[in-house]
Specification:
The complex is a heterotrimer of chains A (627), B (296) and C (316).
Chain A (H helix, E strand, L loop, with lengths): L17 H19 L17 E6 L14 H10 L4 E3 L8 E3 L7 E2 L5 E5 L22 H10 L20 H6 L11 E5 L2 E5 L7 H4 L10 H7 L13 E6 L3 E6 L17 H4 L17 E6 L3 H10 L5 E3 L5 H4 E3 L4 E2 L1 H4 L2 E7 L2 E7 L12 H17 L2 H9 L4 E2 L24 H10 L10 E6 L2 H16 L7 E6 L2 H9 L5 E7 L6 H4 L19 H11 L5 H16 L3 E6 L1 E7 L2 E2 L16 E2 L14
Parallel strand pairs in A: 1-10, 17-18, 17-19
Antiparallel strand pairs in A: 2-3, 4-5, 5-7, 6-7, 8-9, 9-10, 11-21, 12-13, 14-21, 15-19, 15-20, 16-20, 22-23
Helix pairs in contact in A: 11-13, 17-18
Chain B lengths: L15 H14 L1 H21 L33 H36 L4 H15 L2 H11 L6 H26 L2 H8 L4 H9 L4 H24 L10 H8 L9 H28 L6
Helix pairs in contact in B: 1-11, 2-3, 2-11, 3-4, 3-6, 3-9, 3-11, 4-6, 5-6, 6-9, 9-10, 9-11, 10-11
Chain C lengths: L1 H12 L1 H17 L5 H4 L6 H11 L5 H14 L11 H36 L4 H15 L2 H13 L17 H35 L2 H8 L4 H9 L4 H27 L4 H11 L2 H29 L7
Helix pairs in contact in C: 1-14, 2-5, 2-14, 6-7, 6-9, 6-12, 6-14, 7-9, 8-9, 9-12, 10-11, 12-13, 12-14, 13-14
Classes of the chains: A alpha+beta (627), B mainly alpha (296), C mainly alpha (316).
Chain lengths: 627, 296, 316
C-alpha cells in the first residue's frame, strides 16, 4: 500500500542467473528456518499420535495470562481451573449452578457468628512434577499454599486483579498489604492450623466467601514456582489440576492430562445429572470413572466466528464451538427448545444455555444533563427523560437482530441465572412504548431543542457501531434529533474502561458476567460506595438502596434476603438508572463422538476434565488434505 | 508493500505549456482512459448527490427488517438491523471521495513542498533532515504506524486520514526531490537566481509548477491507495469513526457471508472495485499522456 | 574486506535512522499508546490500586526517562517480559519464524511469477498477450486484499466451497501439513502482489528495451529472446533487487498482519497488532527496534548487492 518512488542506477553488468541463485538460496533459507525453529516442538495436532484422545475446541479469545493472580476473564479461567486446583468448584451438570468441594474435603464449618470458617483440604494431592521443586518432583499441596496464593492477590508487585473479592473482608489482610506485603509476616485472618486444615477469620459476615474460593483467583499456586519463574508463571502454570500446560500462544493452548491427578470416581447424581435433559449427551458413560478422560486438550482461539464455524464443520478440526449467531437460521430447526435441522442433527449435538450475566446500558448520573443536577426541578425532569429513553429502547428488536430472538430480556438487574430471579416482575420497563415516551418527554417540557446530547461510548468495531446506529434510530423515534445522539469510540477495552473508571462517559453500555450465582454480584453494580473507579459506573447513590444492600450483604441465602434483593431491584427500576437488560443464549454444538455437556459461565472450563471421546473413526487427528 | 514507480523524466521546460496541451490531446484519444474518466465522473456525481442530500440521506434509518432480500423498496436488501444497503453503499461513495481526495490532496501537497525543499537545498541540512524523516516513515510498517497514530489520536475523527497522509507523502516527496535536483541546474533557475529572485519564489513559482505532471499522477495513485487502505483499516477497527464506508460494510459482511447473506459484501466490494479500477485506468492514461517521450 | 568496512560505515550512518524510528514509534505506540492500566485492574478497583498498577507499569515516569530506558533495552536487547509474563525475546523467537515461513512462499512466488508475466508482456509488447496480462494486473491491483482473503477462504477452505485446505490452526511439524496450511495464505498474498509486481517489472523491462544498446543488438540480428535475457534482464537487476529488498521489512512485520489475524496464525504480525491494541509495551518496544534495525540492514545489504551485481558501482 505504500507508495515508493525510487530512482534506479541504470548501467549494470550482471552475473547471469543471479536471480535463479537467489531463488534457490531463498528456498534453502525457508527450510533452514523451518528446521531450526517453529517446526521443532510437538505442538500441532498432527504431532499427536492417533492413539491419544485429543479434544479440540474453539473459543473466541485468547487469555492474556495464565497466572491466577490476574485470572480476570473467562478465557484465562478456562485454563487456570484446569491447571490449578481451587478449594471449591461447581457441579458438572447442575443448572442453576451449585457449588461442590474440589480440593476441600467438604463445605467449611462456620462459627455461629459467621466470622470463622474452617476448611479441610484433601490429603496426598501433589503439584505436577516441575524443575522448581527439589528433585523435580511435585510436592504435596498444603494449607500454606492457599494462604500464600491469597497473599499474592494483595501484593501490588503482581498487579493482582482479584483482591476486590476479599478486600476489607479478611482480618489483617489489608493491614498486611499496607505494611509492605512481606510474605514472611503472618495475616491474622489466614491461618494454617495444620498442613490440611485452614482457618479464615472475617471482619464481618461474608456469605459469598465459599463461592469466591471456586474462582481462579483463589487457585493454589506453589511458592517455589513463583520464586523460580517470577512473571514467567503467566505462561507456565504449575498447579495440581487435571491437566498440565504443553504450549501457549495467541492462537492456541495445548494441555495434556496430569498423570498424577487424584483418583475421584464420578458420581453423576452428585454432579446434578438430569437424565431428562442431559441423557442425549452420553455422559452416563463416565459414571464411576476417574477424570480426566482425555489425553490432550486443545483450545483454539478464533476471533472470527465464520472461521470458527468453518473449522468446526470441516469435521477434523475443532470439535466444539459456540454457534455463531449468523448461522442460527441455517442450522436450527427450532429455537425453543433448541433443535437442529436434520442434516446437522445427524452429525452434531446441541445445547442452548442462558448466559450467567447480562448486557445493559447505564446512565452515568454524574452528568447533569440527564443525571444528578443541583436544580431539583431539573433533576426530576432528568428522571422523566431517562424513563422516556427506557420506553424508547426496543429490546424486542435488539434480541431479534443480534441474538436471533434467543436472548432473554428482563426488567431490572437480577439476571435469570441468579437463584433470586423474579419471573413475576412487571415487564413494563422492557416493553417498547414510543407514544408513551413521547408523551413523557412532552409532559416534562422536553423538546428537540432542549434535549441534551447523548454520548454513547463503545469500543471500535462493527457490531458496536451497529448497536449505536440502532440505538440512535430508536432515540430519533422518540424525538431526539440525529445530531444529538453521538458515538464515541475507544480503541480497546482498556481505554473504554478508563473512561468508565474516570466517570468520563455519559452512557455506559457494558456486560457483566456473574462471578458466583448470587444476585449480590449484580446488585453491587449500583451500590453507592462502589462508585467510580469501582464497579458502579452509573455513579448512582441511593441511600435507601445502599442501606438495603448493607443489610442483605451479611445474610445467608434465605427468603428474607431474597425479599431485600427484590426491593433493591425495584428501586433501580423506579429511578430509571439503567436500560436493562438481556441475557444471551449461547448455543453449543459439538461432534457426536464427544461426550460432554459444555458451558462457559461463571468459571469457564471447570467441566473440561469430564469430557470424553468415543473411539469412533470420526475421531482422527487432522490429516493433511490437498497437500 | 506495493511500490509504484513512475518512469517519468524531466519535462521539456521550454514547451511547458504545450506539454499540457499535448497531454490533453493524447488523453482525449485514449478511449479506455476516457471511458474510465467517465466512470470516475459518474461516481463523483453520485458522491456529490449524497453530499448535497439529494439521495442516500436515509442510510442510518431503520427502514426495514433484518436481512431483507433485494426488492423494489430495498434495491440491495437490508442489513442486520434493517438499514437500506443501497443507501449505505451510495453514501459510502461520498465517504470514499472524502477520504481519497483529502488524503491525495494533502499528501501530494506535503510531498511536493518537502520534496522541493529537499531537492532545492540538496546536500544541506534541510535535505538531510527531510531525507531522514522520509527514511523514518518508510521504516515503520504501514499498518503498525496507522494503528499507532489512530490510538494516539484516540477519538479524533481524522486519525485515519492523518496517518495515511503522514505515510503517503513520502513517495511523492522522493520523486519531486529527484525532479527538482534536475530542474535546479537549469539555466532559467540560475537566471532567476542571478536577478535576485528569492529562493522561496524560485521554488514555488518557477520549479514546482514544472513538476505538475508528476503531482497529478501521484495524486491519482494516492487517491486509490487511500480508498484501499480505508477498507483494511476499517476491518482492523481503525477506520471511519462516524458515517458509513465500503470498508465498514465489508467488515459487517465478514460475519454474514458464511451465513449466506452476501448483499453487504457484494454491494461494497463491487462498487469499490469499479471506482478503484476506473481510477487506476485514469492514472495509467494520465501517465501515458504526460510522458513526453511517447510520441502522440 | 572492502565490503565489510563499507557495511560497518553504513551501519554507523544508519544510527540516526534507528534513533528516529525508535523515537517516533516510542512516542506514538508507547507514550501516547493504549494504557494497559485498566485492563490489569480487577472488576472493582480502588484509586490506590490504580496508582499501584500505573507505578508497576512505569507510567508515572517522565517521557525522557522512559525513552532512555527503552534505548538501554535496545542496546542490551533485553525487553523484559510481555504482559503474559513470557520473556519478549522468547515471544519473538517463537513468532518470527512462523511469519517467515508463512509469508516467504507468497513473497517469492509473487515476485517470480510477476517477473515471468512481465517478461511475457514485454516480449509481446503492444500485442494481445501484453494487453491481457496488463488488464489482469489492473484488476489484481483494484481488488482489496481483504476481499481476496475472504473470497479465497470461502472458495478454497469452507465446506460451502471446495473444502480443500484447513481453515484454522497452524501446524508446520511436517512438510505436508505445512503445505496444506500455507497454500491459501500464499495464494491470497500472490494474487494481490502480482498486479503491482507485474506492472513494475514490465515498466522497468520496457524502459530497458528502448535503450540504444538493445537497438544495436537487434540491428545485429540477435534473436529477440536472447536479447531479452542477455541484454535487458541483467540490466534490470538493480531496480529488481531494490524492489525486493525494500519490501522485506514491510512484508516481515506489516504484511503478515491481515493474513495472520484472519487465519489465526500466531506470527509476529498478529502478536504486534495485539500488543498495540492492548498496550503491551515490552512487545511493542522490541518490534519497533527490530524493525528499525532490519530496515537499516536492508539498506546496507541492498548497496552491497548492487556492488555484487555491478562491480562498477563504487562503495564510497
Amino acid at each position: 500500500m505504500k507508495i515508493v518512488g525510487k530512482k534506479f542506477p541504470r548501467k549494470a553488468i550482471s552475473v547471469l542467473f543471479v536471480g535463479l541463485n537467489r531463488l534457490i538460496s531463498a528456498f534453502l533459507a525457508i527450510f533452514l528456518v523451518c528446521s531450526l525453529a517453529g517446526c521443532g516442538p510437538p505442538s500441532g495436532s498432527g504431532a499427536a499420535s492417533p492413539a491419544l484422545k485429543t479434544f479440540h475446541f474453539a473459543m473466541d479469545q485468547a487469555p492474556t495470562t495464565l497466572d491466577p493472580v490476574q485470572g480476570a476473564n473467562i478465557y484465562a479461567n478456562f485454563v487456570i481451573v484446569n491447571a490449578y486446583d481451587t478449594l471449591y468448584s461447581y457441579q458438572y451438570l447442575a443448572r442453576p449452578y451449585l457449588l461442590k468441594p474440589n480440593l476441600a474435603v467438604d463445605f467449611p464449618t462456620v462459627s455461629a457468628d459467621g466470622l470463622i470458617y474452617t476448611f479441610r483440604l484433601k490429603k496426598g494431592v501433589r503439584f505436577i512434577d516441575d524443575p522448581c521443586f527439589p528433585g523435580g518432583r511435585g510436592r504435596e499441596v498444603v494449607a500454606e499454599d492457599f494462604i500464600y496464593s491469597i497473599k499474592r492477590q494483595f501484593d501490588p508487585e503482581n498487579q493482582p486483579q482479584g483482591a476486590w473479592l476479599w478486600q476489607g473482608r479478611i482480618t489483617g489482610l489489608d493491614e498486611w498489604k499496607a505494611a509492605g506485603s512481606d510474605y514472611a509476616q503472618p495475616v491474622s485472618g489466614l491461618r494454617a492450623i495444620d498442613e490440611h486444615t485452614l482457618e479464615i477469620r472475617l471482619t464481618r459476615p461474608y456469605p459469598q466467601l465459599t463461592a469466591t474460593l471456586a474462582q481462579g483467583y483463589s487457585a493454589l499456586v506453589p511458592r517455589e514456582a513463583v520464586e523460580k519463574y517470577g512473571k514467567g508463571l503467566g505462561v507456565r502454570p504449575v498447579g495440581s489440576g487435571p491437566f498440565r500446560l504443553v504450549s501457549y500462544d495467541t492462537a492456541r493452548v495445548v494441555m495434556e492430562r496430569n498423570p498424577n491427578y487424584r483418583q475421584e470416581p464420578v458420581d453423576l447424581a452428585a454432579e446434578g445429572y438430569n437424565p431428562a435433559t442431559q441423557k442425549f449427551s452420553g455422559v452416563e458413560a463416565i459414571q464411576g470413572r476417574s477424570p480426566p478422560f482425555i489425553d490432550r486438550l486443545e483450545f483454539n482461539f478464533i476471533n472470527e466466528s465464520s472461521a470458527s464455524w468453518s473449522s468446526f464443520t470441516k469435521g477434523d478440526e475443532v470439535q466444539l464451538t459456540v454457534l455463531p449467531i449468523e448461522q442460527i437460521d441455517r442450522v436450527l430447526a427450532s429455537k425453543r427448545p433448541v433443535t437442529l435441522r436434520p442434516e446437522y442433527a445427524a452429525k452434531y449435538h446441541v445445547y442452548g444455555g442462558l448466559e450467567a450475566g447480562f448486557v445493559f446500558t447505564a446512565f452515568n448520573m454524574d452528568y447533569p444533563e440527564f443525571g444528578y443536577n443541583p436544580d431539583p426541578e431539573r433533576e426530576r425532569r432528568n428522571q422523566a427523560l431517562r424513563c422516556a429513553m427506557l420506553k424508547g429502547y426496543d429490546w424486542e428488536a435488539r434480541n431479534h437482530s443480534w441474538y436471533f430472538g434467543l436472548g432473554e430480556y428482563f426488567p431490572g438487574i437480577i439476571v435469570p441465572a441468579s437463584p433470586e430471579f423474579d419471573p413475576a416482575l412487571s415487564r413494563a420497563s422492557v416493553t417498547r412504548d414510543v407514544a408513551g415516551a413521547r408523551k413523557l418527554l412532552k409532559d416534562n417540557g422536553w423538546t428537540p431543542d432542549n434535549l441534551p446530547t447523548i454520548v454513547y461510548g463503545t469500543t471500535a468495531g462493527t457490531t458496536e457501531r451497529l448497536f449505536f446506529e440502532q440505538f440512535r434510530a430508536w432515540m430519533r423515534d422518540i424525538g431526539f434529533p440525529r445530531a444529538k445522539v453521538v458515538q464515541k469510540t475507544y480503541a480497546n477495552f482498556g481505554d473504554i474502561s478508563r473512561a468508565w473508571k474516570r466517570s468520563q462517559l455519559p452512557l455506559v453500555a457494558k456486560g457483566w458476567g456473574l462471578d458466583y450465582p448470587d444476585a449480590e454480584n449484580t446488585l453491587q453494580l449500583f451500590y453507592g460506595p462502589n462508585a467510580s473507579p469501582g464497579s458502579n459506573d452509573a455513579n448512582w447513590k441511593n441511600p435507601e438502596y445502599d442501606r438495603l444492600y448493607e443489610e442483605s450483604s451479611v445474610l445467608q441465602p434465605s427468603p428474607e434476603r431474597t425479599a431485600l434483593y427484590h426491593r433493591m431491584n425495584q428501586i433501580v427500576l423506579d429511578d430509571c438508572v439503567a436500560i436493562t437488560g438481556i441475557s444471551r443464549t449461547r448455543i453449543y454444538l459439538w461432534h457426536k463422538n464427544v461426550i460432554a455437556v459444555p458451558d462457559r459461565e461463571i468459571l469457564g472450563g471447570f467441566w473440561l476434565k469430564y469430557v470424553d471421546l468415543k473411539p469412533e473413526p470420526a475421531n482422527i487427528p487432522a490429516l493433511v488434505k490437498g497437500g | 508493500m506495493n511500490a509504484v514507480t513512475l518512469p517519468l523524466t524531466a519535462p521539456n521546460r521550454a514547451s511547458g505549456e504545450s506539454l499540457w496541451h499535448k497531454a490533453a490531446r493524447k488523453f482525449g484519444r485514449d478511449r479506455l482512459g476516457m471511458l474510465a474518466l467517465g466512470v470516475v465522473l459518474a461516481y463523483f456525481l453520485v458522491a456529490l448527490g449524497a453530499w448535497l442530500g439529494w439521495w442516500a440521506g436515509g442510510w442510518a434509518d431503520l427502514t426495514g427488517t433484518k436481512w431483507e432480500p433485494v426488492s423494489s423498496a430495498h434495491w440491495f436488501g437490508t442489513n442486520i438491523i434493517g438499514q437500506d444497503i443501497f443507501d449505505r453503499a451510495v453514501f459510502s461513495t461520498a465517504t470514499a471521495f472524502e477520504v481519497g481526495l483529502s488524503v491525495a490532496l494533502a499528501a501530494t501537497f506535503i510531498g511536493a513542498v518537502f520534496g522541493a525543499f529537499a531537492g532545492f537545498f540538496v546536500g544541506s541540512w534541510i535535505d538531510e533532515f527531510l531525507l531522514w524523516c522520509m527514511g523514518v516513515l518508510d521504516a515503520i510498517p504501514f499498518y503498525l504506524f496507522v494503528a499507532a497514530v489512530a490510538y494516539a489520536l484516540t477519538d479524533n475523527p481524522w486519525a485515519m486520514q492523518v496517518a495515511m497522509i503522514a505515510t503517503f507523502w513520502v513517495g511523492t516527496g522522493r520523486l519531486i526531490r529527484g525532479e527538482v535536483i534536475k530542474l535546479r541546474g537549469m539555466e532559467y533557475v540560475e537566471a532567476a537566481h542571478s536577478i535576485g529572485v528569492s529562493e522561496l519564489a524560485i521554488i514555488f513559482r518557477h520549479i514546482l509548477p514544472n513538476t505538475g505532471h508528476i503531482l497529478l499522477v501521484q495524486a491519482s495513485i494516492t487517491f486509490v491507495s487511500a480508498i484501499k487502505a480505508e477498507v483494511i483499516l476499517s476491518f482492523l477497527g481503525l477506520g471511519i469513526k462516524d458515517g458509513m464506508s465500503w470498508g465498514l460494510m465489508i467488515d459487517e459482511s465478514t460475519k454474514e457471508v458464511l451465513a449466506g447473506f452476501y448483499n453487504n459484501f457484494l454491494a461494497a466490494s463491487l462498487l469499490m472495485f469499479g471506482l478503484v479500477m476506473a481510477f487506476n485506468a485514469v492514472a495509467d492514461a494520465l501517465q501515458d499522456a504526460l510522458d513526453p517521450r511517447k510520441v502522440g | 574486506m572492502e565490503i565489510l568496512q563499507y557495511a560497518l560505515r553504513k551501519l554507523l550512518a544508519g544510527l540516526p535512522l534507528i534513533f528516529g524510528v525508535t523515537l517516533v514509534s516510542f512516542a506514538l505506540m508507547v507514550y501516547f499508546g493504549p494504557d494497559m492500566t485498566y485492563q490489569l485492574l480487577g472488576k472493582n478497583p480502588t484509586p490506590e490500586q490504580i496508582l499501584e498498577v500505573r507505578h508497576q507499569l512505569g507510567y508515572d515516569q517522565p517521557f525522557l526517562q522512559r525513552y532512555l530506558g527503552f534505548l538501554r533495552e535496545i542496546v542490551t536487547f533485553n525487553f523484559g517480559e510481555s504482559s503474559t509474563g513470557e520473556p519478549v525475546t522468547a515471544l519473538l523467537a517463537k513468532t518470527i519464524p512462523v511469519s517467515l515461513i508463512l509469508i516467504l512462499p507468497g513473497f517469492i512466488l509473487g515476485h517470480v511469477v510477476g517477473l515471468l508475466l512481465a517478461l511475457a508482456a514485454a516480449y509481446w509488447r503492444g500485442r494481445w498477450p501484453d494487453k491481457l496480462i496488463m488488464a489482469i494486473a489492473v484488476i489484481g491491483m483494484s481488488v482489496s486484499f481483504l476481499i481476496v482473503i475472504i473470497g479465497f477462504q470461502i472458495v478454497l477452505s469452507s465446506s460451502d466451497g471446495l473444502d480443500l485446505f484447513p481453515v484454522r490452526g497452524w501446524n508446520a511439524s511436517s512438510l505436508g501439513s505445512y503445505l496444506s496450511y500455507v497454500t491459501v495464505p500464499t495464494l491470497a498474498t500472490m494474487f494481490v502482489a502480482l498486479g503491482y509486481d507485474t506492472r513494475f517489472y514490465r515498466s522497468v523491462i520496457v524502459e530497458e528495451m528502448t535503450r540504444d544498446h538493445v537497438r544495436t543488438a537487434r540491428a545485429f540480428g540477435l534473436p529477440e529472446s536472447r536479447i531479452l535475457l542477455r541484454n535487458i534482464l541483467k540490466n534490470c537487476l538493480i531496480p529488481f533487487i531494490t524492489r525486493v529488498m525494500f519490501s522485506i521489512p514491510q512484508v516481515a512485520i506489516g504484511g503478515a498482519l491481515l493474513i495472520e489475524s484472519y487465519f489465526g496464525i500466531p506470527g509476529i504480525g498478529k502478536a504486534t497488532y495485539e500488543a498495540i491494541v492492548t498496550g503491551d509495551q515490552p512487545v511493542l518496544k522490541a518490534v519497533v527496534s527490530l524493525t528499525a534495525i532490519l530496515f537499516v540492514l536492508v539498506v546496507i545489504l541492498n548497496d552491497v548487492l548492487y556492488r555484487v551485481v555491478d562491480p562498477r558501482v563504487t562503495l564510497k
